[in-house]
């Protein structure tokens, strides 16, 4: 049996870390003048038009032009990346993520 991926599938970026060691929000750190999260959101667009970013809270300055849906990570506190993955599996309705 050969498994084939659907033509498109949702891509999820986990951006819910506390950045405790960094001391500031990693997603907002500029790389060549562009916030890291914006760069990360641009990469998967070449693969799939369906993009979601999972984070603790939606930033007040969430840009309208960012090509991604924001999903609030409502998993257990301090669950780390596995909590974000749990949220993705619960909220994204697709057989493949």
Q: Which percent band covers the strand fraction? A: 15-25%
Q: What is the typical, i.e. mean, pLDDT?
A: 81
Care to count the β-strands?
A: 5
Mass-distribution shape: globular
- Runs with pLDDT <50, length 5+? none
How can the largest sheet be summarized?
3 strands, parallel
Radius of gyration: 14 Å
Range of helix content: 10-25%
Distance between the termini: 21 Å
Q: Treating each run of at least 4 consecutive H or I residues as one helix, how many helices?
A: 2
The H-and-E topology, N to C, reads as EEEHEEH
Q: How would you classify the helix and strand content by structural class?
A: alpha/beta
Record the strand order, biggest sheet. 1-4-5
Short description:
Helix content is 20%, strand content 18%.
